Every structure is written in structure tokens, then in C-alpha cells.
């Protein structure tokens, strides 16, 4: 990933392994990982659809393991599960709608939009929390 030519993460399995491990660790501690995992996946130079599918597959695997683990330790009740389930259903609907738009977007502008959104959300969280 290049950010104005200053930061370079090598594309490859090592970056994915280290980035995935770091992302999973931070997600386990804080419950957030979006900007980190996005940075890792952006290094792969994927098309917008391939980027979203790769990110979604990794997130699904991580969240399934997390839900099973928390359930195993009795840290999740039915109320929490149903909240997540219904929010997840709404998110899936939004993804199906967004797919129609994303499949027609060029890679470079899309990567810039993703980076700008990550920065904006990070700043918003920093200011509001």
C-alpha cells in the first residue's frame, strides 16, 4: 500500500499473516479492526469487488470464531445474539445493494475513497469518544 509514496507494505502472504494476526489481536482486545484490516487488504492491489469479498471472508471467519468463543465462555446471551443477527441481516441487505455500484468502480479511485473514509471515521471516533 502506498500513502503518497511514503509508506510501503509489501504485498504478499507475510503481510497478510502479520497484518491478519495484528488485526485479530486488536479486534480481540478492542472489538475494532476495520482500518487495520483495510490497510492490509489494500496492499494486495485487488479490484473493488475482490477487495470487499476478501475483507468479508476474513471478517466472517473472525466473527464466527469470536461468537463461538464468547458463547463457549457464557459471555453471550440470546439478546446479544439477536441484536447481532438483526444488525447483520440489515448489513447483508446493504451489501447486496452496494454490490451493484461497486462492480462498476475503478480500482485506484476506489482505494482512495476507502482510505479517505478510514481517515474520516478514525477522526470522528477520536473526536466523539
From TrEMBL:
Keyword Transmembrane on entry: yes
Pfam families attached to this UniProt entry: TauE
Record's keyword terms, sorted: Cell membrane, Membrane, Transmembrane, Transmembrane helix
Annotated organism of origin: Prevotella lacticifex
Family statement: Belongs to the 4-toluene sulfonate uptake permease (TSUP) (TC 2.A.102) family.
Signal peptide: none
Presence of the UniProt keyword Transcription regulation in the record: no
UniProt superkingdom: Bacteria
Membrane topology listed for this record: Multi-pass membrane protein
Name of the protein described by the UniProt record: Probable membrane transporter protein
Taxonomy of the source species: Bacteria, Pseudomonadati, Bacteroidota, Bacteroidia, Bacteroidales
Amino acid at each position: 500500500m502506498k500513502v503518497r509514496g511514503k509508506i510501503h507494505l509489501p504485498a504478499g502472504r507475510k503481510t497478510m499473516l502479520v497484518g491478519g494476526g495484528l488485526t485479530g489481536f486488536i479486534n480481540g482486545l478492542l472489538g475494532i479492526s476495520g482500518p487495520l484490516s483495510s490497510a492490509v487488504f489494500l496492499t494486495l492491489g485487488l479490484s473493488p469487488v475482490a477487495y470487499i469479498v476478501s475483507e468479508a471472508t476474513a471478517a466472517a471467519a473472525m466473527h464466527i470464531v469470536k461468537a463461538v468463543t464468547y458463547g463457549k465462555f457464557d459471555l453471550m446471551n440470546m439478546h446479544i445474539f439477536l441484536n447481532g443477527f438483526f444488525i447483520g441481516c440489515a448489513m447483508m441487505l446493504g451489501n447486496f445493494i452496494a454490490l451493484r455500484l461497486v462492480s462498476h468502480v475503478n480500482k485506484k479511485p476506489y482505494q482512495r475513497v476507502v482510505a479517505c473514509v478510514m481517515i474520516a471515521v478514525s477522526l470522528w471516533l477520536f473526536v466523539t469518544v
